[in-house]
Write a structure and sequence with these properties.
Helix content of chain A: 10-25%
Strand content of chain A: 25-35%
CATH class of the largest domain in chain B: Mainly Alpha
Number of helices of chain B: 12
Bound molecules: adenosine-5'-triphosphate, magnesium ion
Mean pLDDT of chain B: 85
CATH topology of the largest domain in chain A: Rossmann fold
Largest sheet of chain B: none
CATH architecture of the largest domain in chain B: Orthogonal Bundle
Low-confidence stretches of chain B: 295-303
Distance between the termini of chain A: 35 Å
Structural class of chain A: alpha+beta
Number of strands of chain A: 20
Number of domains of chain A: 2
Order of helices and strands of chain A: EEEHEEEHHHEHEHEEHHEEEHEEEEEEE
Oligomer: heterodimer
Number of strands of chain B: 0
Strand content of chain B: under 5%
CATH superfamily of the largest domain in chain A: P-loop containing nucleotide triphosphate hydrolases
Shape of chain B: flat
Number of helices of chain A: 9
Mean pLDDT of chain A: 92
Chain lengths: 370, 303
């Protein structure tokens, strides 16, 4: 069993509280991604799990063991660092086998493991090289290999792909998730905790994603839920590209939404989702993909002006100013029936089933009922 | 204007430019010659005493101060032969051996203890760290002489006088603040990731130090040993204070001995032995300098 449990985990640096008592359960064999903007204490959390950082409060369990005071080497974990952290004076093969050699593993076992791991990661050619003779991608594979060879219960990754170029990153992404699946299918309980600030990595790799902000967990959910039912305005804005349109609005009589001076009716189904005791001062959120362009003379919708058009190939990004708020709207580029031009007047209507309403004060999503 | 005049104008321009470039090159050439001549002359002036010393060690005692030139007119090695025998029951070999006996434990002790202490300062948080590091710097700034008397009294109480212990022990306990400070600076420049990776790989702090840090610190450790070698070879005061029997004298004291005991100074003996005394230092310096520079460029950590 390689479940990882964090209970009211805290970290205080001097007077600065970096982690505010977080609770998180990572299931056996799960691929959990920690994501959030820079400085939200993703690394700190990961390093506490690894045992590289002392914890200031709470507890960490790996499997069923309380590991609060165990040194990293005894926690059954392996870690891949952002800048690889290969031992510069050792050949690749010795980098791989360092942990095993420390444990005085038998020579033939070391040789067999090294061979197996270097085969999986396709680094056989580089075994005799020093780390400085490797490219970034090769070094990264060696770093993953060094973690893999120990057959740990828990893999910890701290932004392992951030130093690679876009193409390599995409292929490493697949490689790492495949590797995880392969380990699972071989019956190994490999739990992964993967830190990144890149939402593409988070969405494509994670079974579940933990979104963090300033040392607190904002939401833990699978990618689909995170996208469809964000728990609060922060998660809504953080996940999705281009960013969700978020702005101030007023709920009028619980049935209409007023943005600026313009108002539109919320249909019954959407109204049913919104909390009954919702305040009138709210924040609305609509993803750029969830607008319909309607006739300019239609009775409802937001009338604005196109300030900028970006043609992306299969879709078009429209930057629209509605009174003093700006919106990004993504429309398919298929139809020739309409050309979007700068300075055109345009009327857009949020799709009712994709409309989010947040409490303006707390940021909490209050349109998730039912 | 026709095309022809245009092109001929261009070519005179070109010629002018080429000439200017040649003038420029000549100027650079001449100035570099001047620079090298000046460097050579100054270097020669600085080195002349050494050159003279070597030359004079092959002179006879009579010729020593009659000519300022360094080339002996009647070269002889009698200075070396006589000097080696010394005026004591021991040959100079004995004194070299003593120097080695002081030097080697001291160098090893310094390298080990300074590394361990620097590792502590650079990588661990412990109560009183700031105060301790401040006192380390204070010791660095304190003139050596100030601590001589209390140290002497201390070692006398221990009954360590006239043994090598007072020379070994302080160094083996990281008593040379300079080396600790130097290694702390080096360690601070080494990223922690590698040690952290090692700890995740199951290494204890000591194993991380031994297998990861020390190899990365090799260039710094070589220079520590180099400095300690030079300073110990040249140390006169330490042995003078703590060693009283001649059979324990290192080279630095033995040289002084030959001046003391001879009424009419046998300068050729003294100079010959001086040449021998500086030889190890010179050899080590030139050998290690090459390694030292290599070490620095190879030790650069690539992310
Ligand atoms: N050793 C330290 N001393 C004091 N504060 C620290 C220390 N390490 C981290 N912090 C603070 O703790 C907070 C969280 O840092 P952390 O490195 O975990 O962020 P992160 O989420 O990993 O960010 P990034 O995406 O930039 O890597 C930051 O505000 C940082 O300034
Ligand atoms: Mg980080």
């Amino acid at each position: 069993m390689a479940r990882v449990q964090l209970k009211s985990l805290e970290k205080v640096y001097g007077k600065f509280k970096a982690v505010h008592g977080i609770d998180l359960e990572i299931e056996d064999g799960e691929f959990m991604v920690l994501v959030g903007p820079s400085g939200c204490a993703k690394s700190t959390t990961l390093r506490m799990i690894a045992g590289l950082e002392r914890i200031s409060g709470g507890e960490i369990r790996i499997g069923d063991d309380l590991v609060n005071d165990k040194p990293p080497g005894q926690r059954g974990i392996a870690m891949v660092f952002q800048n690889y952290a290969l031992y510069p004076h050792m050949k690749v093969k010795n980098n791989l086998s360092f942990g095993l050699r420390l444990k005085h593993a038998p020579k033939d076992e070391i040789a067999a493991s090294t061979e197996e791991v270097s085969h999986i990661l396709e680094i056989e050619e580089y075994l005799e090289r020093l780390p400085k003779q490797l490219s970034g991608g090769q070094a990264q594979r060696v770093a993953v290999g060094r973690a893999l060879i120990k057959k740990p219960q828990v893999f910890l990754f701290d932004e392992p792909l951030s130093n690679l170029d876009a193409k390599l990153r995409a292929s490493m992404r697949v490689r790492i998730t495949d590797l995880h699946k392969q380990l699972l299918s071989e019956g190994m309980h490999s739990t992964v905790v993967y830190v990144t600030h890149d939402q593409t990595e988070a969405m494509t790799m994670g079974n579940r994603i933990c979104v963090m902000k300033e040392g607190r967990i904002m939401q833990v959910a699978d990618p689909y839920t995170l996208y469809q039912r964000p728990a609060n305005a922060f998660v809504a804005g953080f996940i999705g590209s281009p960013e969700m349109n978020i702005g101030d609005a007023t709920l009028v009589d619980g049935g209409k939404l007023k943005i600026g001076t313009q108002t539109f009716t919320i249909d019954d189904k959407a109204r049913a989702r919104i909390d009954k005791d919702a305040p009138s001062e709210v924040t609305f959120g609509v993803r750029p993909q969830h607008f319909t362009v309607v006739d300019q003379d239609a009775e409802e919708g937001l009338l604005g002006r196109i300030s900028h058009v970006e043609f992306m190939g299969h879709e078009v990004y429209l930057y629209i100013t509605v009174e003093d708020q700006s919106f990004i709207v993504v429309v398919p580029a298929t139809g020739l029936e309409r050309q979007y031009l700068r300075d055109d007047a345009i009327r857009i209507m949020p799709q009712q089933d994709a409309l989010h309403i947040f409490n303006r004060r707390t940021g909490e999503n209050i349109s998730l009922s039912a | 204007m026709t095309e022809q005049t245009l092109s001929s104008m261009l070519s005179t321009h070109d010629l002018e430019a080429i000439r200017a470039r040649k003038r420029e090159q000549r100027k650079i050439f001449i100035s570099s010659i001047i620079r090298y001549v000046i460097l050579f002359v100054v270097g020669l002036i600085m080195l002349y005493p050494l050159i003279w010393l070597i030359g004079a060690s092959f002179k006879t005692n009579a010729e020593m101060f009659t000519s300022a030139g360094f080339w002996p007119t009647h070269p002889t090695v009698s200075g070396y032969i006589e000097g080696w025998k010394t005026s004591t029951p021991y040959t100079f070999g004995r004194f070299f051996l003593n120097t080695l006996l002081i030097l080697i434990p001291k160098m090893i002790g310094t390298a080990i203890s300074a590394t361990a202490v620097a590792y502590g300062f650079a990588r661990f948080e412990f109560p009183g760290k700031k105060v301790l590091f401040a006192s380390l710097i204070a010791i660095l700034l304190l003139p050596n002489v100030v601590t001589r008397i209390p140290q002497y009294l201390l070692f006398r109480e221990f009954g360590w006088l006239d043994s090598f212990l007072p020379l070994w022990v302080p160094s083996a306990l990281a008593g040379d603040a300079f080396f600790v400070f130097m290694l702390v600076q080096f360690l601070r420049a080494i990223p922690r990731d590698m040690e952290e990776a090692a700890r995740v790989d199951g290494a204890s702090s000591w194993q991380a130090l031994l297998f990861i840090i020390v190899p990365l610190l090799t260039p710094a450790l070589i220079s520590v040993c180099l400095f300690q070698f030079m300073w110990t070879m040249n140390d006169f005061l330490g042995p003078l204070i703590y060693l009283s029997s001649v059979d324990k004298y290192p080279v630095s004291l033995a040289l002084k001995l030959s001046i003391d005991t001879t009424e009419a100074f046998a300068w050729n003996k003294i100079l010959s032995m001086s040449v021998l005394a500086i030889t190890p230092a010179l050899v080590v310096f030139f050998v290690a300098q090459k390694y030292f520079i290599e070490g620095i460029s190879a030790g650069g950590v690539k992310g």
